[in-house]
Amino acid sequence: MVKIPENLRNSFVPGLPVDDLISIYLSAPGDEVSSGKFTSPESSAALAANVFGFFLHKPYLLPLIPDVSSQEPVAVKLEALLPFPWNGGRHPCLDALISTKDSLIGIESKRFEPFRLKQHKVPASSYRRDIWGSNMYRYRKALEEVWNDDGGYRYLDVAQLVKHAFGLRTAVHQDLLQHGKQPILVYLFSEPRHWPSTGRQINAAEHLAHQNEIDRFCELVAGDEVKFVALSYSNLIRAWGQHSDQSVRDHIAAIVERYPETASQCART
To answer: Are 100 and 177 in contact (CB under 8 A)?
Structure first.
């Protein structure tokens, strides 16, 4: 039996299926656990695990996501791998994947990542394959914008979002369990006030620039097969805090206590 470090267990709020969640993250791509990233106070994966892990075995309690879902979820997965239609390479892995009767909803969670300095990474040439269908051309256009440089995106990882959109599109066409569903990519972002390691402030101008890039990307890909929705954690938590089930409200209270940034609009207000 693998001995689980206490600091890893302490990364979860009360009431979660901790052993099951640890097993998921130990076997997931990305090396979140052994690298120490998961236990970092900056971890977006840990935030997503805490928010959605509560519903891992009880998806029927998962509240509706504002502007996204209108049906009761039937399954919730964490660290969900969506294979591309080829072998080899790195396939998209979403922080959470929610299935309803008619929709497949992928969650990409962000906290401090948008505000870190980045080096431009050229997307894999395989993304340029003409296999995504005629109603994904806006995502392909967005990818072309950042191919040789950052395309003016300083905060938003456009290549990653396009990769996830391609993964969701593949799933609803090739996975028999998801066939014919509406693919929806949700960019779920936090709005932290400062860096936990240094205390340096993340100012209002940075949050506004991040939001402007989100708006630009939303406008660019609107109308494609994979619906794109951007949502702040604070708006999600505000909506979920009104849930009729007491256990869900208690869970949301625990999230806000652990992650105060989810309780307000932070630096942008």
So the answer is: no
What are the residues whose beta carbons fall under 8 Å from the beta carbon of 74, sequence distance 6 or more?
59, 99, 100, 101
Give 156-180 pLDDT, tens digit per residue: 999 999 999 999 999 999 888 898 8
pLDDT digits (tens, 9 = 90+) for 172-228: 998 888 988 999 999 999 999 999 989 899 999 999 999 999 999 999 999 999 999
Task: Kindly list the domain boundaries of the chain, sorted by start residue.
Answer: 43-268
Q: Residue 130 gets which letter from DSSP?
A: S
Contact between 94 and 54 under an 8 Å Cβ cutoff? The reply is no
Reduced to 3 states (helix: H, G, I; strand: E, B; else coil), residue 124 is: coil
Query: Among candidates 132, 137, 261, which has minimal Cα distance to 193?
Result: 261
Task: Say if CB 207 and CB 267 are below 8 A apart.
Answer: yes
Q: Which residue has the tokens 């935030």?
A: 47
Q: What CA–CA distance (Å, rounded) separates 163 from 159?
A: 6
Environment class of residue 86 by beta-carbon count within 10 Å: exposed (0-12), middle (13-18) or buried (19+)?
Answer: exposed
Write out the two tokens for 121: 């990474």
CA atoms of 201 and 110, how far apart (whole Å): 17
